[in-house]
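Figure 2 data, in text form.
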Amino acid sequence: MVKNSPVIGPQALPALAEFIRQNAPSRVFVLADTNTARDCYPHLQPHLPAHELLTIEAGEEYKTLATCTQVWEWLTRQQADRHALLVCLGGGVVTDLGGFCAATYKRGLACAVLPTTLLAQVDAGVGGKTGIDFQGFKNHIGVFQEPAGVFIEPAFLATLPPAELRSGYAEIIKHALIADAAAFTQLRSLDVAAVADWTPIIAHSVALKEKIVAQDPHESGPRKLLNFGHTVGHALESYLLTQPGREVRHGEAVAVGLICESWLSVQRGLLSAGELAEVEAVVRAAFEKITFITLETEAIAAYAVQDKKNRGEVINCTLLHGLGHGVFDQPISLAEVAASLQYYHTEL
C-alpha cells in the first residue's frame, strides 16, 4: 500500500475512507480497546466498508505478548491474508501493540493508525515505532515499521479525562525542548484545560517529530533526540508498574524525566540553572508531583540499565544543550540517574 503523510483534522476519517478505496485491501480489520470501542468506534464505523472488530482490554498492563497472541489468533481465525488492512483505533497501547502485530503477522500486514489520545496523536502513533512491554520493561520487544497511513482526528480528544490530555502534553513539551525554543516559549502561557482546538498544536508537534524521524528512521543517530525525558521517565514508569495502586500514565512519568534530565544537563554544564527553572515551571503548571521516597531512587534508577539507547554497560541519555537543542548519546551513570530523582524528590 502507498504510505501517505499524516492527515490531521476533521478530514481524517473521510481521508481514511478514501485511502481504503484507493488501496482496495482484501479485507479490513479494526483493533480497539474497551474505551475506544465504546467512545470512538461509533464515529469511525460509518467511514469503513465491511470489516471485523476486535476489542482488547485497555491499559498498559495489557501491552504484552499475551495480548499479541490474542490478536494473532483472531487474524488467523479470520483467515486474514497479507493483503488485508489492520486499522488501529486507540492510544499508545493500541497503536504500539497493533502495529507490532501487523508487522509480524505473516511477515507483514498493512496497518492504518487512528490515534485517539493526545499522546498517541503527537508521538506514539507517528514515526513507525511498534512494540510491547516485556518482563516489566517498557517497549522491550518491537520493530520499526511505518504504518501505511496515519489519520488524526482531534475531535476524539473530547472523550479523554483531563489527566490523559496532560499525559500527551508531556510529549509536546519534549518536542519543543529538543527542537524548537520558540515553541517552548509559547508553552509558558498555555493552559492545557483551556485549549479549544488542539489541531495546530498537534500539527506542529507532529512536524517536529517527522523532521527528526526522516533523518534517522531506525534510531541510529538523531532520532535518539526523541528519547529526551525517557531514560528516567521509562525507569520510573516501569518501577511504579510493579507497585499496585501507584501506576502512572506514560506522560506523567516522562514529565518527571524532563525535569530530571534537564537537571542532569545543568550538571554537565549544558543548561543554565535559569533554563532549568523554565522547564520546571512549564512542567509544574500541568503536572502534579509524583511521590516516591528517597530509598526508592536507586531501585527506580536500576531500570535504566535496560534502556534501549544503551550500548553495552553504558547508559546513553539525551540531554539539553540550551532550550530547543537536544544532544544524544550522553553517557550517564546509575548514580546520576538516582541523583536526578533525588533532586526531583527534594527540590520540587
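Caption note: Residues 8 and 200 are 9 Å apart (CA to CA).
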